[in-house]
Structure formats: structure tokens, C-alpha cells
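SEQUENCE AND FOLD
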Amino acid sequence: MANGSEGNGYAMQAESQPAPLDASKLKVTLSETLKPMPPLDDLAFGKHMSDHMMVSTYHPVTGWTDPEIKPYGPFVLDPVCSCFQYSTNLFEGMKAYIGPDGKARLFRPDMNMTRMRRSRDRVALPSFDTDELLKIIKKLVQIERRWFPNAPDHTLYVRPTIIGTRPSLGVAASDHALLYVVCGPTGPFFRVSRMLSLMAVSEHVRSWPGGTGGYKLAGNYAPTFMPQAEAAKRGYDQVLWLIGDKITEAGAMNFFIVLKRDDDDLDVYTPPDDGTILPGVTRDSVIRLLQAHGTSTTIEGIPQTVHVEERPVTLSEVAQWSADGRLLEVFTVGTAVIVASVGRIGVEGKDDIELPKHDIQMGPVARAIHKKMTNIQWGREEFEGWSVACE
């Protein structure tokens, strides 16, 4: 009798555990009225959202609700939710592509899910299985297939988001949450036919040692808007974020620099993943491709051997490499932009560092990497299973 009673106790305890996020319980409610498709020339980043979104909520007692894909629309939230008061918000940025075989693909989505777990844990939001979330994302991408723009360099942008919804002003971790995914068509991130200009800024910092710069948290972005507006007033496209003299990121992108060696090989440097930069999916992909160049793959357009290194890079070094004639290229990378060359760096909006001039929009190394990367993303070329079909 004791054994039976004990067994029932364990069963009751198991039943009382908060429910996990479960893709097998996904509900789909399709919109009865579909939105009109916007023209290609109006597809600015993030301007248009598709017909549907995915939603699931977390309660500390009952756990995650059955996820639902339903018509896109607003939420109703308590005015004192943690997300409003304490910025318990995080998101990921992903792109989906239609390959030559007609299949929809995501680019290295496992890395986005890994980073989302890290960010979620950093702000102590309720846990969930990101593998289950990825299954749901693939289903949403398939449902929104008509939203893929039929044009070069145009994709479906996907944004998984989780926000804390604890309805209290108490200064504590949120034990309630809202997990959702939205998506929409997008064209090129920068609609300029020239290289980017960066204004180096040390007065305002984007991140600092021991801070949250290495996590994709919503709270990291708002403090960058004022310095960005000041850079725009001075004629620059983006801010080059410094900690003292040390370069961290450019805008919301990772930073790369290409140098000429005495043996005619190339050195490619990028700031290390030391907690002050976001560990970008595109950044990691560029590093991996450059390391594999000449061995397991070839990046057409880069005839030299490339030596890629994650190391601190200072603005003073960039200026000295330029003066010595070693500096060949500066470029930035990110999910939205993929690869963008830099043609101008201003120091606090005053003196410019002399950068190599190129007759085209991208330097040769940046252009070669961009072509290689997009071939993989669009499924035209295979590399280590990075292009994942939404099946």
C-alpha cells in the first residue's frame, strides 16, 4: 500500500509541473482577410508585417500555453508589466530564403536559438525548449510563403521575441512571459550606393566589461539612438562604438578589418567575443568561411591565403595601419546587412582616418565574402549544413 501511495504521489507531483513549450500542440488559426502585398520599393527593414504571428504565454503555475499561429494583431498587457518597467525583453533576428529548389530555408537557426537561450537566462525569464520554438518558426515560415519577395537581395525577416509580463512593480525577475514570433518582407538594409561612413564615439559606450553587450536584449538598443542621431547630423551613417580606444561594434554590426602582410597574404582581424560585442551569427560565419578558405572551401575573389584572428583592435592601430599603407579594407557584418564596406571613419566627428578608396560599393574581400555567404543562405551552395530547409 505504501509503495502504491508513494507512486501516486509522484504522479500527482509530475502532473503539477508547469507545462513545457510543445510544438506538437501547435494550433493554427488562419486569417480570413489577407493583407495586400506592398510594392518592392517600399520594403524598408521592419516596415511591413505578414498576415500571421505565433504566440504562447507562460504562467508560473500552469506553464506554457499551447502555441498558436494566428492573425497578426496587438496584445493586451497590464500597464505595470515587467517589460515596460524593467525592460525584460529580448529578441532574435533571422532571415528565411527561397532556394533554387523552391524550398524555404533558414540560415544557421541553431545559433539564433543558442543565443536566445543565453539572453533569456541573463534576464531570468521563464525557460523553454528552443528546439520546440524552432519547429514552430519553420511552420510559420511555411504558412507565410506568399510574403517572400520575388527579387534579388529580398528576404523574409523573422523575429522571435520574449517579454516579461509579471503584473507588478516589484523589482524582481518576471515569472510571467509572452513568447511570440512575427515576420515580414524586407529588402536591402542600407539603401545607399556607396560605402558606409562611421563616426567613432568614446563619450557614449554601447557596452562595457561585465555588462550585457554580449546578449541580444532590447535594453541594449535604446541608449544608442541619441549618439546615432548625432552621428547622422554630422553626416555619418553609423556610430563606431569604442571603449576608450578599443573598437567594439559599428552600429548594430560586427567590425572587421583587412590588412596586407609582407608575404602578400591577408590578415583579417575582428574584436574578440569578450562580452562587449554581440556574438553575431554572420560574424561567426565570416570567421568560419575565412578559416576554411583554401582548404575545405574556396571564396572566389580572394586569391591570397587569409589569416583570421579574433583580437582587440584599437582606433589608434587603424590609423597607424592606414599611415603605413597596410590597411586594405574595413567592413561590417550582421543579419540585416550581411556585409557592408566602410569608406570613411571620423574621430568624434572631426578628423577622418584615411581609408582605401574603391571604385565599387564594396571592397574586394567584402564583396567576395558577401557573394559566398548569400550563395549559402539562398541554397545555391552547400557548406556544413548551414542552410536549413523549413520542412
Observations:
- Residues 190 and 313 are 25 Å apart (CA to CA).
- Confidence is low (pLDDT under 50) at residues 1-13.
- The chain has two domains: 17-186, 196-379.
